[in-house]
Amino acid sequence: MEVISLRSHARAINDDEEKDLLHPTEDDESDESLDEKGSRRDVTEGKEEPRVVDEEVYKVTWLRWWVLFVFCFASFVQCLVWFTFSSVPKVAKGYYPGVDDATIDLLLNWGTIIYIPVLPYVSWLQTRRNGLLIAFWQGNALIFLATVIRTIPCWAPAHLRGNFYMQWTLHVGQILNAAAGPIVFAVCSKLSAVWFPDHQRATATALAYTSNALGTAVGYILGPGLAPTVDQMPTLLYVQIGLASLPILGGLIYYRERPKHPPSAVALAHREGRYEESFFKGVRGALLNVSFLLCITACGVQAGVTSGWQGVLPQALEDLDYTESESGWLGFGNSIAGIAGGVLFGPVTDIFFKRRSKLLLLLLFGLSTSGFAWFTLSLPTPFGGALIPSTFWTLMTALGIAGLFQGGIGPALFELSAELLYPIPEATSGGLLSLLMNMATLVFLFVSPLIKTTWFNLIVTSTLLFCGVLGVAQVVLMRERYRRWEAEVAIYHESQRSLPHKLRRMEQPN
């Protein structure tokens, strides 16, 4: 177990409060026990002291990585299940008689339709005791049940698969899986705050955030790979049942609401109830914070449109001389680049852009917009050919650049939102950010079938360019303030003031 000593860093923080509070070292010793709120009780005076006080204050355990891995895998499976039928639209239409493009789109759209009404419940749940743990088990139960229900038509004769009731088992499965979406997406920043020290929080948030996108990326390859023909559609569905059972097994091995000892002052604040406990007061406070509103709209619209565009990319490129396999590889490349960007820029933020998120966001928005501009100019337009000559590989490169820098925007905004809104819980800030992203995705997915293919790419990529420029303008106007970090410093100094009293009490003879 890693231990953070307050005394060893007192001089550094007093000299320069811009430095990190926590730099853990390896140790297996344990702290004295806390009461149920996480505070230490002064036995001699019969009252609680505001925080800890011996040398070893914050501890982090290697089990945090296991918890994060299980959470990330559940998020990955949820997105993979959501993308099932859109990854193999031709095969799905052949296996289920009567299923057309509109049905495939609806099966995809359930993800955002259901996400929006379920999100307030998930955000409220995070203000309750054991909210993370309850949400984890509810989400995984929904995902597993969804994968099982979708296989019911596979047991029926082929002529009955087009039956109205058989088709609705697909919709019920997609709806149940969609209900798990907020659980595995909106609580990323809370999970990192509860389990990880300050200098690893951005990395943990980035991994949790990007694991969901990994589901789409793998879906581009796994779907056509397991179900290249109509007869093999059941194989894809059965494999997903097996994948959905793995997070449940991982949770049974080990998964907790929080570690035994807080890894940081923020985790301690969660234990001691320093966060706003009223969900409705938190939402009201968030909506009155102008910087937060600029923050979430800068990311939400662009990320939402990008997510929806990735979901229909194979269909969008069908009439542009790209095979389903080639379209899948283009989407896979863009998704993998986005995941790599999220994973890469998490540690980069921790190391080089600590409390400099505004500068990082300006760089990411600018570079991702340049990639989308290249891709836009490489595609034919309704007015003629492409302005820039292109091949499959130049398109892959353009999408890779756009995805790489786009991938770093989401995690950075999740962390910045949590900083701007403290003491409003991370699940509320993350929930509102993801709500806007899903609303943008929903609008896009409903509008996209109305756009002719010849206009589709021009309109969508132009929208992405506009969102990128708008995002830069909003980030410029946004005022940075790291309230959560300021609270960490305050909690630290509070504990330092209580230290002399505690030491005197320990030195008194029995």
UniProtKB/TrEMBL annotation:
* One Pfam family from the record: MFS_1
Which stretches of sequence are listed as region Disordered? 15-46
Domain of life from the UniProt record: Eukaryota
TM ranges are: 65-86, 106-125, 132-152, 172-196, 203-223, 235-255, 286-309, 329-348, 360-379, 391-414, 426-448, 454-477
Entry's Gene Ontology cellular component terms: membrane
* MF GO annotations: transmembrane transporter activity
Indicate, by first and last residue, each region the UniProt record lists as having compositional bias (Basic and acidic residues).
Answer: 35-46
Q: Where in the cell is it found?
A: Membrane
Regarding the membrane, this protein is recorded as: Multi-pass membrane protein
Keywords on this record? Membrane, Transmembrane, Transmembrane helix
The protein's name:
Transporter, major facilitator subfamily protein
Say which species the protein is native to.
Acanthamoeba castellanii (strain ATCC 30010 / Neff)
